[in-house]
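Many introductory courses stop at the sequence. We go one step further.
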Amino acid sequence: MKYRDVIRRSIVSFMDGTIPEETAKRKDAGLMYTPEYFDQLEEDMIGTEADKKSKKTKEGKDEA
């Protein structure tokens, strides 16, 4: 198996919410980048983008 295949499997596994056993053990010790962290980050970023689009739309209507 090539290194690239191992990395690809690891990423797919992480995206599915699976954390390797040894990593999961360290989660209580302050592991920051968990699947939950990235889910929250995505929600925050989507909200930010939606707010920007909404603001631009409102500004455009006010000027007309």
